[in-house]
Amino acid sequence: MEYIGLHKQIKKNNFRSTLLLIGFPAIILAGVYVFFYFGFSPDMYAVNQSFLQFLPFVVIGVGVWFAIAYFSHSSIIKRSSRAQTLSRKENMEVYNLTENLCISVGMKMPKLYIIDSPGLNAFASGIDEKSYAITLSSGIIDALDEDELEGVIAHELTHIRNKDVRLLIISIIFVGILGFFVQILLRSFLYGGRRRDSKSDPRVMMIALAIAALVYLLTVIFRFALSRKREYLADAGAVELTKNSHALASALRKISGNPDVDVKSADIKQLFIENGSKKKGFMSSLKGLFATHPPIDKRIAILEKGL
Q1: Nearest CA-CA partner of 188 in 177, 168, 198, 202
Q2: What digits encode the pLDDT tens for the residues 103-131?
Q3: Is 156 a residue of the active site?
Q4: 79-95 pLDDT, tens per residue?
Q5: How far apart, in whole angstroms, are the C-alpha atoms of residue 244 and residue 237?
Q6: 156, 231, 274, 304: which is the annotated catalytic residue?
Q7: 226 near 168, Cβ under 8 Å?
Q8: Domain positions in the chain
């Protein structure tokens, strides 16, 4: 693995990721505009007037939802994953490994949490120094040796250093907003027909649903593309911190054998160090196109090239 120019790559990737995140609200507003155009009238003046009248409600609604999710995401993640605080007294090895890595790069130590699960996985979360956290399963702590565990922690610290977690959480929030609107439109279309009078045009609801589904699909694709790029950079950053590509490769190989950790939210699983499917076949290959992580075998192969 080549580490020369890593920081330049991170800067470029962060810039591209920021552009993607700017695109989320733009897509929402574009979807609303297209809905007015195809759903009511092709007259541009009428469309522009309707859009401008509706714009404040869209902005306020999205803004309120975003603010709630932005400031309460830590408690939501902790509750959904059933994670508990991990102190130095409870596990000195994990605490010291994390603290030493943070000291080596001059960063504030994030909070540590543990999930009681035999599955092997870990993730980083947070949007600022007050909320940054690393969560490990009890299974990964028990199964990995010290060097392997250090590699996993370094991987998650790199996600924090690169502001990956902030970008990913923001993207999850936006996709959640779109998902909610798609569900509302779908339920209105399926169950609201009986309440609509005979003069109502069902094409309007069909157009709204089609546009919302398309916009939602685009945002999901954008988020997955953002996540995949950053896993490779986090692997590279972990090796740069630990100077040991073999340890992280070995850790990923162990994780690949049993990555399943039971959490309530599918969004949290997207933060895991490994969230890929182990099934083979056409359908699994198709799902792989939309996977949040690159294939773990490919990540291991890249790491082993640096041995």
Answers
A1: 202
A2: 999 999 999 999 999 999 999 999 888 99
A3: yes
A4: 888 999 999 999 999 99
A5: 11
A6: 156
A7: yes
A8: 6-305
